[in-house]
Design a protein that fits this description.
single chain, mainly alpha, Farnesyl Diphosphate Synthase, two-stranded antiparallel ribbon, 15 helices, 70% helix, globular, binds geranylgeranyl diphosphate
């Protein structure tokens, strides 16, 4: 299958949902502008696309769950806005553009992030024809676990505590698993839950999600060193300058590449039971290994 075309079509679907959803009148206008600024800054939409692809791997039409998939991008966008704040990573550039607080100021950036997170849960709680209430409740719990104190927030706190710390494998794994892998993996699990996946299928897809989630951050760490600023959309070498605990810092570039390759291989193996319906998930796993931004 043509994975580039699949990613392009998925991104287009999510972009359309988000621009329609946030096009109505939202008062005050600056809140609308700040949310739309970051939502439309050109992300890859990889979390929503994973959610749609997991749903398809379970044999269900993913058009039914575009709202849920788009809500995952809203949670991701909130996390980027807050991560860039002076109190956290203090970054001026995101996706090649000035960060949200550089344009709207810190207070509006914080509130725009808060609004995106809250609205995502509102979308998750809305009734959708054909999605069973029990599966939907499980999906809400997945999203909360992946984004809150058991997921991304915990990873972010540990990441901040570990700046300038001595490299340590266990802490590095904790950060990566919580800060980045949790939401990516939840995106896959939520797609499967909403499709009504049986337990064996759900377990296989969870394993896939976990492995690509970890690989994603290892690759991100490598790109921070070898990527070009214009391509990665943020200043190259920023992890090194902030003395972040990263895979290349602990293992060097070559071993980090091998670790990422091994994780992607495990992700592909976890799909052994599936037929062509999981080809998009296979394609995404391979694409992640070769991505340049
Ligand atoms: C503020 C609670 C809170 C958490 C922030 C996501 C995050 C946690 C921090 C972002 C810092 C960072 C660069 C993490 C590395 C992995 C990552 C999430 C990269 C950005 O995701 P992509 O590549 O971005 O999917 P696009 O721009 O394509 O959406």
């Amino acid at each position: 299958m043509d994975i580039k075309e699949y990613l392009r079509a998925g991104k287009c679907l999510i972009d359309t949902f988000l621009s329609d959803y946030f096009s109505g009148e939202i008062r005050p206008a600056v809140l609308s502008a700040a949310m739309n600024y970051s939502l439309q800054a050109g992300g890859k939409r990889i979390r929503p696309i994973l959610c749609l692809a997991a749903c398809e791997a379970c044999g269900r039409n993913s058009a039914d769950i575009v709202s849920f998939a788009s809500a995952l991008e809203m949670v991701h966008t909130y996390s980027l806005i807050h991560d860039d704040l002076p109190a956290m990573d203090n970054d001026d550039l995101r996706r090649g553009k000035p960060t949200n607080h550089k344009i709207y100021g810190e207070a509006i950036a914080i509130l725009a992030g808060d609004a995106l997170l809250t609205e995502a849960f509102s979308i998750f709680a809305a009734t959708v024809p054909g999605v069973h209430a029990e599966s939907q409740m499980a999906a809400v719990r997945e999203l909360a676990a992946a984004s809150g104190m058991k997921g991304m927030v915990a990873g972010q706190v540990q990441d901040m505590l570990s700046e300038n710390a001595e490299p340590d494998e266990e802490t590095l794994r904790f950060i990566h698993r919580h800060k980045t892998a949790a939401l990516l993996s939840a995106s896959v699990r939520i797609g499967a839950l909403l499709a009504g996946a049986r337990s064996g299928v759900f377990e296989s897809l969870s394993l896939y999600g976990d492995r690509i989630g970890l690989a994603f951050q290892v690759i991100d760490d490598i790109l921070d060193i070898v990527g070009e600023t214009e391509v990665i959309g943020k200043p190259q070498g920023s992890d090194e300058r902030k003395k972040k605990l990263t895979y290349p810092r602990l293992y060097g570039i070559e071993k980090s590449r091998a670790i990422a390759g091994g994780l992607i291989e495990e992700a592909l193996q976890s799909l052994g039971y599936f037929g062509p319906e999981a080809d998009p998930l296979r394609g995404i796993a391979s694409y992640l290994l070769s991505r340049t931004h």
